[in-house]
Amino acid sequence: MLNNMPVSYSGIQPSGNLTIGNYLGALRNFSAYSEKYKCFYCVVDEHAITVRQVPADLRRRTYETFALYMACGLDPEKNTLYVQSHVHAHAELAWLLNCFTMFGELSRMTQFKDKSQRHADNINAGLFTYPVLMAADILLYQTDVVPVGIDQKQHVELCRDIAERFNAIHPGTFTVPEPIMAKTGMKIMSLAEPTKKMSKSDENPNAIVYILDDRDTIIRKFKRAVTDSETCIRYAEGKDGINNLMSIYSCFTGKGFEEIEREFEGKGYGDFKLAVGEVCADALAPVQKRHAELLADKGYLEAMMKKGADEAAYYARKTLSKVQKKLGFVML
Ligand code: TYM
User: Fold this and answer.
1) C-alpha 156 – ligand 1 centre gap (Å)
2) To test ligand 1's pocket by mutation, which of 15, 43, 152 has the most ligand atoms within 8 angstroms of CB?
3) Is 197 a catalytic residue?
4) Catalytic pick from 38, 113, 115, 267?
5) How many CA atoms lie within 13 A of 85 on its CB side?
6) What's the predicted TM-score (pTM) here?
7) For the segment 98-139, what is each residue's pLDDT rounded down to a tens digit?
8) pLDDT tens-digit readout, 259-272
9) Which CATH architecture describes the domain 7-181+298-327?
10) Which residue among 102, 117, 188, 200 is least packed, with the fewest CB closer than 10 Å?
């Protein structure tokens, strides 16, 4: 809680162009909290450097991701939108929490195992302690809820464990947060390999629909989506490709699976794929338009980044000081 309001906190890495997985699993759900929660949404550039980045690309995507928050309906006057590296308390609290996080816990993180396989030449300490920085992000703001896709649930659970461990020694320090996941959309799968999560770092561009893909590209990618040898549109075990397309269609239209099955009775996969592409392109068009307008005015984006960073730093400083005092640091 902050100022008697429950707090919602989430972050997105500017480590690649954002996908409809990021959009449906996280981004588009954020604005729903704006009325009842004090909301903090962060572009987590410090997390992104756990994997090598081209500096110019990282900078460009930081602006783009920030603009996407706003294009998806987050008003910077109502929500605290900011860039992680602009608020120094994140890195500082992460160090303190490192001393309350166990080696064994970090070794069990599935994302660390995946990423260390994919980047075997660069298994750096930051990749290993990544979830501690994420815990610092969340705990700095006395967060109640963390809206995320299912792939981040394990990290939020570790954050809870760290908070509880710290609180057991120093009572009343941190709010213990809950992860919140969208019912459909919490795990959007790759269009090329539907047993794998759709990921912005996938090297196959046909596996991914980007939020900023143009209409023709979106429709083409859905047309090529891997399905199965059946012809009827139904949600069933083993039909991973169709299940994924049905989930995406459901997210964009609000229709349940049975309703979708009825709608496409007697129709083939081709018709269904086209319909999914069309609803996706229709939903993203206004976001893309607003995004382009926002990106055209970097001065405004920077002013909003600065405003957000100042607000975030104010609250972050309070929690950091509380932690430092509890740990026995001399406060001047
Ligand atoms: P990131 O940048 O990988 O993803 C951002 C958000 O998008 C969700 N997501 C998905 N949801 C459904 N289907 C998918 N295929 C899919 N791919 C990604 C993610 O679950 C996430 O919610 N560690 C985080 C960033 C982070 C953070 C935080 C999140 C840093 N600090 C504090 C919450 C709170 C990450 O790498 O997300």
Assistant:
1) 11
2) 152
3) yes
4) 115
5) 10
6) 0.97
7) 999 999 999 999 999 999 998 899 999 999 999 999 999 999
8) 999 999 999 999 99
9) 3-Layer(aba) Sandwich (3.40)
10) 117
